[in-house]
Specification:
single chain, alpha/beta, Nucleotidyltransferase, domain 5
């Protein structure tokens, strides 16, 4: 079956689209990436998404129009990726504007903007969407959802393997080895913390909006990370919390960046961006070190995806701080670095079609595994 996967992450850069052919057993699929397309949001649309995610009050009409605009970009990305219209199914995550993990006795919740019936009608094919709600309703974090997919897509190694996404937020998957006593262990995964989100907001602040992000790490490369700041930040409660855990711009957003900026007034703008960039790598390295210190697992290879791979300073910091682990991008496995999550939601849609449970209680903390997503057919 040919399936379209559509994803827009917390960075709100735009929509990543993939066209994938799946065959074979759903739990161990044979897959082929046919096409991938990146379609950026306009600057106005990106700003609107980031503003509401940071708490800007807008009218009901504006909420509706924002959902319509997001849906239209998803439709355009899908059409550009599947020009011949061969996809039978679409898996679409939508645009997250707010994510709340479970708090004490209160279930978590997550809001993704998308008009799925409209998208199904525009594309004239079934759309599977709203992938997080079922897991959240069962007490789970609702994120990350890709670890089960990673385990199905990436080949197992002689030791533990890891897959890291450097989007707005970083999330990590740990895949059991092919052989040995751990071969029957569960797939593990969690959100590590900020990847690009704090860096992006810092760049926007110091350039007064002239730049949206640190292209090619040019600003960070002209500064030096302050290790004292990084060491202090790594002691914050979220980074000490054991999985399952998830997070987003709600926690690591503009307000959080502003607090760090004011507390680091002695740093130059370049040093501040360099410090945040290194911090994004340090939170991942600390999570891996904590696994090792607790005699749990230590991956031998780390496959990295997401926009952070385009930042050579962030990638270099990751390589230097994740000692003893081979670090490489998923491009070396034949997958474009921005396509991993779109590929994941294509597979989750295919699993939904086969009624395969796509969630993992070991990752999200939910009561049980469940089929993810809701299906909408064109009228």
């Amino acid at each position: 079956m040919f399936v379209l996967g559509l994803m827009s992450g917390t960075s709100a850069d735009g929509v990543e689209a993939v066209l994938v052919e799946f065959q074979g057993k759903p739990t161990r699929p044979r897959w082929r990436l046919v096409e991938s397309v990146s379609l950026p949001y306009t600057s106005d649309l990106r700003k609107a998404v980031l503003d509401v995610g940071q708490g800007k009050k807008i009218s009901s009409r504006e909420w509706l129009e924002l959902a319509e605009a997001i849906t239209e970009v998803h439709s355009q990305a899908a059409c550009a990726c599947d020009r011949k219209g061969i996809a039978e199914l679409v898996g679409c995550h939508g645009q997250t504007v707010w994510h709340r993990p479970p708090i004490k006795e209160k279930l978590g919740a997550s809001l993704q903007l998308l008009q799925a019936p409209l998208l199904a009608q525009l594309l004239n094919r079934a759309v599977v969407h709203d992938f997080r709600s079922a897991d959240l309703a069962l007490g789970g974090q609702g994120a990350p959802l890709v670890p089960s997919v990673d385990a199905a897509i990436f080949r197992k190694l002689s030791g533990w393997g890891a897959v890291l996404n450097l989007g707005g937020i970083s999330n990590l998957t740990l895949i059991p080895p092919l052989s040995g006593p751990d071969r029957f262990a569960s797939v593990l995964g969690w959100d590590c913390g900020p990847a690009n989100t704090l860096v992006d907001f810092a760049v926007q602040k110091i350039t007064h909006g002239a730049l949206a992000f640190d292209r090619d790490g040019l600003i960070a490369s002209n500064g030096s990370p302050n290790e004292e700041c990084i060491t202090g930040w790594l002691k914050e409660p979220f980074f000490q919390k054991k999985p399952p855990k998830s997070t987003g711009r709600e926690k690591f957003g503009f307000e959080d960046m502003q607090k760090r900026f004011l507390a680091s007034a002695h740093l130059s703008p370049e040093d501040f961006v360099a410090t945040l960039t290194a911090f994004s790598a340090a939170v991942v390295a600390q999570d891996l070190d904590n696994l090792n210190l607790n005699d749990l697992v230590r991956p031998i290879e780390l496959l990295v995806s997401g926009g952070g791979c385009r930042n050579p300073v962030m990638f270099r910091e990751l390589v230097q701080r994740c000692r003893g682990v081979r670090v490489l991008t998923i491009e070396e496995r034949g997958i474009p670095i921005e396509a991993r999550e779109a590929l994941a939601f294509a597979l989750l849609a295919w699993w939904h079609n086969h009624q395969i449970k796509g969630s993992s209680p070991d990752v999200t903390g939910a009561q049980r595994a469940v089929v993810l997503g809701s299906r909408v057919n064109p009228v």
